Amino acid sequence: MGVKVAKFGGSSLADAEHFRKVRDIVLSDPEICYVVPSAPGKRFKEDTKVTDMLYQCHRLVERDQSHEAVFQKIIERYMGIYEALGLDFDFYGLLLETGDQIRRQKNPDFAASRGEYLNGILLSHYLGWDFIDAQSVIKFDRQGVFASEWTNEIMGEALSNHERAIVPGFYGSYPNGDVHTFSRGGSDITGAIVARAAKADVYENWTDVSGFLMADPNIVENPKCIRELSYRELRELSYMGATVLHEDAIFPVHKAGIPTNIRNTNDPADPGTMIVPQVSKDRNSGQRITGIAGHKNFTLITIDKAMMNSEYGFGRRVLQALEDFGVSFEHMPTGIDTMSVVVSDKELLTRKDQIIQRIEQLCQPDTISVSTGIALIATVGHGMVSQPGSAATLFNALYEAGVNVRMIDQGSSEFNIIVGVHVDDFETAMRAIYKAFVKE
Ligand code: ASP
Q: What is the CB-side half-sphere exposure of residue 107 using CA atoms within 13 A?
């Protein structure tokens, strides 16, 4: 029998009804041995996540104000679930003690971590499974950097003592034992860490959508679901803004060769999306591309200088100018006498003029031009590799849609073609590319 680790997101554990769905899913699959819960998320659009309320409690405590009114709302949410599930242990006492600890510890990470901790306790009673506190099995170094190998060792050992267990997501501890959290959405990372340590066959990530879509549904009407994609494709698509999974959740499972299966708690019969180390040949019903994703708000800085190709260190000096101002670049398309750098507007902020000046100083170019309002679109898929005509299909689609291409970047791995277009053309370009590649 295989071993599965199942992580359930906040919307999958937002109320008692969802707890019941989770129990049905977990108990109907004997391979699920370890469950990683998030804190209760939103029950409806205007609702507040428990994690957000916990941060609010901490902010009040920090200002020496009472957090009681907000904490009372947290108590009500948890007690609502506890009572509806008919549980019987002193959960109320634990809640009161937690409120007190938040007041005394004055640690934002501790406060935030209690959402997962309390949900984990609830779930362990509901399923009748053991509880392993993430504080003792997930480790960060003193700087707060996740200690992967140390964690893998102690987590592996802890799991070997429990045939079935709940490990709450999102947090761990510093070497001195103080609680520290991952960044927001970090329960995904915990799930991946548990999967690696358990040497799981599959890491199931249960959420409120049936996996990844081939394009943003706000732009492309009714995009198809991606049935299978590789970790590398996922990285390319999420870099461009396609989000379902926390980015850092990829590393532990990818490294261990464990596939991640995105599943929908509200539609457990749907197979969801499988993220695998190596894609199979006949996946996604023969679609040539796996997905399209894009991002607005980039700036293109273009530097021209005659004979730049024979000038030693020219590229280094351009990048030096960015580095001097702590700005990273996204892409660097080049021509014979021209070199461009694509930088996100967020990075550039108020430093644009200073950077241009620095490039002028260091490189003495003939001209520098700056184009703002650039959107990048990535068309991703192993199916494009060694396939003549992929680029032709893409550029023809853009030509026919009347979209001018400002920049092209195709890595030599061939499974990602990035084009830069004007922001006003962004949506048109996305739809045109989708239509040209995706067979209905
Ligand atoms: N509860 C945390 C958050 O809201 C972590 C998670 O849900 O993954 O960010």
A: 15
Which residues, 6 or more positions from 49, have their beta carbon under 8 angstroms from its beta carbon? 10, 39, 40, 41, 42, 115
Burial environment of residue 422 by CB neighbours within 10 A (0 to 12, 13 to 18, 19 or more): middle
Atom of ligand 1 nearest to the CA of 9: 7
The Cα–Cα gap between 150 and 147 comes to 6
Put simply, whether the predicted model's pTM sits higher than 0.85 gets the answer: yes
Is 243 among the domain residues? no
Q: Which atom of ligand 1 is nearest to the CA of 184?
A: 9
Write the CB contacts of 101 (distance below 8 Å, at least 6 apart in sequence).
110, 114
Query: What value, to the nearest 5°, has the Cα angle with vertex 241 and ends 269 and 410?
Result: 110
pLDDT in tens, 254-264: 989 999 999 99
The mean pLDDT value of the chain amounts to 94
Pocket test for ligand 1, best of 184, 243, 246 (most atoms within 8 A of CB): 184
Residue 173 in contact with ligand 1 by CB distance below 6 A: no
Q: What domain count does the chain have?
A: 2
Q: Are residues 296 and 185 in the same domain?
A: no
Mean pLDDT of 356-368: 95
Distance 131 CA to ligand 1 centre (A): 19
